[in-house]
Amino acid sequence: xxxxxxxxxxxxxxxxxxxxxxxxxxxxxxxxxxxxxxxxxxxxxxxxxxxxxxxxxxxxxxxxxxxxxxxxxxxxxxxxxxxxxxxxxxxxxxxxxxxxxxxxxxxxxxxxxxxxxxxxxxxxxxxxxxxxxxxxxxxxxxxxxxxxxxxxxxxxxxxxxxxxxxxxxxxxxxxxxxxxxxxxxxxxxxxxxxxxxxxxxxxxxxxxxxxxxxxxxxxxxxxxxxxxxxxxxxxxxxxxxxxxxxxxxxxxxxxxxxxxxxxxxxxxxxxxxxxxxxxxxxxxxxxxxxxxxxxxxxxxxxxxxxxxxxxxxxxxxxxxxxxxxxxxxxxxxxxxxxxxxxxxxxxxxxxxxxxxxxxxxxxxxxxxxxxxxxxxxxxxxxxxxxxxxxxxxxxx
Length: 396
Prior knowledge:
396 residues; alpha/beta; five-stranded mixed beta sheet; three-stranded antiparallel beta sheet
């Protein structure tokens, strides 16, 4: 364990290490991970370099009192030197004589509004690093009082070029130690925002159904589980609409429907959804989803195709015809943004489809058994039969 983890919460140390991993070589960080408190990179640093590190951290601390964002600027300079050192041996080791003029003579300064240094094919700028730090401090480290305006600080970098000079004098070991100490300074000076946390956290029941629920079972019509899932999704996503759907393998034309699931607002058809539990590609797109293309062409409703997977060319065909396309990956991206209650609404919609539209009690019980493994406190489990009751019903 590194000495810098002392006093840090686990999530803070993990977030800082993730940032450093994106800028320091992986092999170097692996070596650092194996060092103890009594055998770390700080012990390899000379007294002269230790003085430069102390000067950099001290200056960042002094400037912090009037401008919190300068702490990020100090880290920006350290990272800039490290990124350039990967390609330029001039900044590979400790050099106490490097000046700002030396830096600007060696590298072309490319941006007026920030600091971007270029030499040959090498080009690195501090604005991108500062954006990363804003996200790191405000979101991952819960320091929401870290300034969120990168341009204000990166645009005035010349006011703090003494910190730039100090950062470029350091070796890789020195930069690593300086970065860690600058982060510790930030954690100490920036007050942590306290967030209300729920323990244990809410489950993701519908997301887990989407990812892990087996879609085929002996006592269920093929495709019914996916149709139920999509019905639940539509029910939660368009909760203001009245939905109309029928059992699997019941033709929509016979039921005077447009798609497998139609959504109405009063008398007006607003959405029409066709569900296909299969891969759609160029060979079958017209046969499987031609009806939806006609709906898109001939109505003002939003025509939607939901399929397990859609090839690029089939997606292009559908979208050119005005059909919106969702596959499992699209559904997952959206459902991951839903809170527990919206996911639970979708789960209830799925159960409603099995119980009251498909009228398949086996499908209901199989889904409830799955829910019991992923959300054991869900109130819907009041409808889950025990094994003895289920066996008795199966035998009648």
